[in-house]
Design a protein that fits this description.
- Belongs to the NADH dehydrogenase family.
- The protein has 354 residues and is α/β, with parallel strands linked by helices.
- The chain is built from nine helices and 23 strands.
- Helix 1 packs parallel to helix 8.
């Protein structure tokens, strides 16, 4: 039997599993093994709501597929040995592969800011999001929460926390002139004004230079905070960062047009660790996984490599609490209740399909 090993049960590998297990062209001699540290797929795009306390974590857990061709191994990956075609797990025997899909996701990137790693909260994993929830929702009334980073994660966390804990003072630190500058100005203005109207202090043109217990420093000026959540950047998982392979300026793995290592067609990388011409997202990981599954089926059946089209993303949807949102669809900018409803519908459909 040939072994396909998938590292990480995130959006990319879940989509790859779905396509492979549903394919009538999956050869009988292929065994699939999924390795993850938790026994369920987590909806990472909703971690902000878990941390804010507006949903419980069973709403963002989805069971892994149950299929006779799929073996699931629970464990912590400690190393990928490319020369031995082996994955080492903490306290367990190595898992050997013929083909490998690395989908280990990302970690917070602290940009060298002293104290940021030690003194800030995170929403990058379900465990860290649970810890963040415990701390934020145990704060006393009128406590100050700093959210560093006003990208999609920071915006959604700050808005959801405003609805969950209206008694808190929330400060959103944004490096730009206005929130979400990559979007159309109409959308950015809408989001910025939503925060102003709902009592969230947006601190534009910020530069966090240091974080200490109980405070952070913006342009070296002390700002007292009872808790600080870091949403100001991501980087590939440390296991991937340690691999001696070609990476781009952001530390993501450079790939061939077929999504495998240029010198190793048995190792694919999907999602946040892959160097692609888009910002990392769940949608991007799924679209990439579709193509990886297509390539693997052709490879296993000794067929010519498929002609892969350009990955095209459908748009972005973000929430501002439970009643408002923002997003893009094609060239259109969406604001208000419609994009919030669209996001809820997409989430429901995803959970149903998975």
């Amino acid at each position: 039997m040939k072994q396909l090993v998938l590292l990480g049960g995130g959006y990319g590998n879940m989509r790859a599993l779905k396509r492979l297990l549903q394919s009538s062209s999956l050869p009988e001699d292929i065994q699939l093994t999924l390795i993850d540290r938790v026994p369920y797929h987590c909806l990472k795009t909703e971690y902000y709501a878990l941390a804010a306390g507006t949903i419980s974590d069973h709403h963002i857990r989805v069971p892994f597929p149950d299929h006779p061709r799929l073996k699931i191994v629970y464990g912590e990956v400690t190393e990928i040995q490319l020369s031995e075609k082996a994955v080492t797990l903490q306290g367990q025997d190595p898992v050997y592969y013929d083909d490998l899909i690395i989908g280990l996701g990302c970690e917070d990137k602290y940009h060298g800011v002293p104290g940021a790693h030690e003194h800030t909260l995170s929403i990058q994993t379900i465990d860290k999001s649970r810890q963040t929830y415990q701390i934020l929702n145990n704060l006393p009334a009128n406590a100050v929460v700093g959210v560093v980073g006003a990208g999609l994660s920071g915006v959604e966390l700050a808005s959801e926390l405003r609805e969950s804990r209206p008694d808190l003072s929330i400060k959103l630190f944004d490096r730009g002139e206005i929130i979400l500058p990559a979007f159309k100005k109409r959308l950015s203005n809408y989001v910025q004004n939503w925060f102003i109207e709902h009592g969230v202090e947006v601190i534009n043109r910020s530069n966090i230079t240091k974080v200490e217990e109980g405070c952070l420093y913006n342009h070296d000026e002390r700002v007292d905070c009872d808790a600080v959540v870091w949403t100001a950047g991501i980087q590939p998982n440390s296991i991937v960062r340690e691999l001696d392979i070609e990476k781009d300026a952001q530390g993501r793995v450079v790939l061939s047009p077929y999504h495998h290592l240029p010198e190793n067609d048995a190792v694919f990388v999907v999602g946040d660790c892959a160097s692609l011409p888009f910002a990392p997202s769940a949608q991007l990981a799924e679209e990439q996984a579709e193509q990886i599954a297509e390539v693997l089926i052709a490879k296993w059946n000794n067929e010519p490599m498929p002609e892969l089209g350009e990955i095209k993303l459908k748009g972005v949807m973000g929430s501002l609490g439970k009643k408002s949102g923002f997003g893009t669809m094609g060239t259109a900018a969406l604001i208000g209740r419609v994009p919030r409803l669209l996001k809820s519908g997409i989430l429901w459909l995803y959970k149903y399909q998975v």
